[in-house]
## 1
Amino acid sequence: MDLPETDGVVVVGRILPSNGSFEKVLRTAIKKKVPKLVEAPADQRVLLLEDGGTAIGFTKLTIELDEIAKEFSDLKKIDAVWTVHTTSWKSNGDALFVYVWPGGVREKFWIKDQRFSEQKPAGLP
């Protein structure tokens, strides 16, 4: 996998979570997080899901959220779901944020900050 503006990263991962299928893990997260988010006073409700791997694509996440929304009406009260890919977070401080729901992938942006890396260049706090 190419990561823009990087010299290269070796990533070791597994395709599916060891404690169940991707769908099961996502459903568990939705059950736990969405009710709290819906109850909080807010003008906009944005659910942020972390993905530390690369095996599950953005489209797969969108499709699963569409399916889950049929069962969990509170999910429809969320304005947006974003995912943050943290595969290269520890190695070089990069995180990729992607809007995934509703309506599929719309926006992507990188945050690049070596201060968050475990391998900080000289002079960074």
## 2
Amino acid sequence: MMFRKMGGWTGWTGPRRAALLAAGTLALAAASGPAWSAPADSWPTKPIRLVVPYPPGGGTDVIARIVQDELRKQLGQTVVIENRGGAAGIIGTEAVARSDADGYTALFTLSSHTINPAIYKKMSFDTAKDFVPVSLVASLPQILVAHPSFPANDVKELIALAQARPGELSYGSVGSGSPGHIAGELFKLRTHTNLMHVPYRGGGPAINDVLGNQIPLLWVSIPAAAGFVKDGRLKALAVSTVRRSSQFPDVPTMQESGVADFEVDSWYAMFMPAGTPQSIVHKLQHAVAAVVNEPEIKDKLLGQGAEAVGSTPEQLDATVRAELVKWAKLAREAEIHVD
């Protein structure tokens, strides 16, 4: 496993983020068209398996469970979450790629879906060809948290500490290629520091090690860390986006903390195996858009620091294709790869 200094990169621009967050309204309009054609007229007739390729307790799992019950109500069938963590989401994602394209298996994943192809050279599936996009569900920042005993209380103190102790400090993420990993490597580049990356199999295990003071720092999605920050068991140093989180308005951004040109956004989305009938895909998208635009669900998402999106399949497809190119370029410039 090898990670080297990253090249220059900036995350989504303000207009890009605004367009995605406005997609929910467009999605509802797009979904209100003619009656669905077969086989969606009868689908679903049995429970739907929603594979979350990360362990329970992590940010992806938390967001999936927020929409799970309302999705059941929209579809009239049980939605069963199956956590299949490991290899930065690759194990569970592969399971979906190999599943029958009958509409009864879906993937609920993180934006590492488009990062992994750039750094993992031996994946057994093709991200662009083996999945059909359903909908972007939510968007949110990463948050940098530390154990309360960690000597640095803000980013400036962290930079000074890391520069004084090069190579001695480490940071965790939910896996190589995750948005947290990207945020950590971008931090190293922008601050000229040397921190060791420790990849985990998901947010839950990573947070447990920070809580146990076995690792000092962690870049993770806000849903996975929110409760622990609120009760004082973890302290938040910064968020990764250019805007502060609505859930933690007192936590500064990296740019506000003096780290210029720093933005890492992350998203959650749903996909189905390639070959799934488009009528089913659009019916599921219609249900997702309806769910995330419900005021109660929006509030729950905001409570986790996430903003509802609910895009069309076409909008998610455009995001995936653009990011596959962007992350491949970044990986080449930064010489980041996993053997």
## 3
Amino acid sequence: MVSEGQHAKAAALRALHGGGIFVLPNAWDAGSAVMIADAGAQAIATTSAGVSWSLGRPDGQNLSREEAVAAVARIAAAVDRPVTADIEGGYGSEPADVAVTVTGVIEAGAVGINLEDSGAPGGGLFAPAAQAARIRAARAATADAGLPELVINARTDVFLFGIGQPEGRLDDVVARATAYAAAGADSLFVPGLLDLGTLATLTGAVTLPVNVMVGPGAPDVAALAAAGVRRVSLGQAITQAAYTLVRKAAAEALTAGTYDSTAGADSFGDINGAFRPADQDQL
């Protein structure tokens, strides 16, 4: 049963796409989600890479549906913000597989999803028509689950994986965006594309709000906004930095016998105080 609170969170996430630009620092577990919310994020997005790493797996659709849904449930229970779930390729290639996954993450408390068009049988990307069918199944599942307003962020990996000839990639993405919008997508996620001129052309050519993935060296949020981008995701960047610190601090302590890598951390009290006891959960 979808609660009124979940409906309100879905409406809040949808409203963020209505104008301007917003930033999603991606979480990989309940603790990181709390820290991101405490920093002021309006919504929490998950990162499949971070969730996979937290479970001791490599990224790249190596989670089971059950593992992914359980991670979403822990995150949604830990924060009072809208949660949008990275469901990778849907944990199955058929539209029915995607529908089952969408139903599961709604039951877990999510109000948005990323669904990518990579992971087609045999490698490469799903053909636009096949991916559109998967998006239609996702949209139908939202209605069947009682949350038709869930936000579907349709991810295309044309630029990320360098699909086709460089001169044809933008046209491919525009064509996919048209098909995905007709199938029920609410926004278009194009990781691997950060050229501001190409982004400006893309945002002027498609009806869907455009989402990009950023990290060190990427254009800043103001520049992306000027190019028409509406949604900015950090992807695995924060998780990557956190895991790098773990390895560096461990190596320092084990070799040099010093602990300087952990300098500058927030105080125990500041971090501990961001969490609420389980008996205070009101979600």
